[in-house]
Amino acid sequence: MNSILVFKTSITSQGEIKQLKPALNGLITKNGYWNFDLEDCDNIFRVETKTVTPSSILQLFKSFGFYCEELV
Length: 72
Known about the structure:
4 strands; Alpha-Beta Plaits; alpha+beta
């Protein structure tokens, strides 16, 4: 069963999403799905996955210099 993870981020543009896209696609395998909602004031990042952990998402964003916080 897939989990849905939701994060508040510092991502504000399609250009920043483009920077992350290859790494996100590599982390979130073909069994998962991800998207951003830049219309939301928290610049929401959603992940539907069976295998990815919140800590791996947080580390990936940090490695690119972006803020990311899991919303629970």
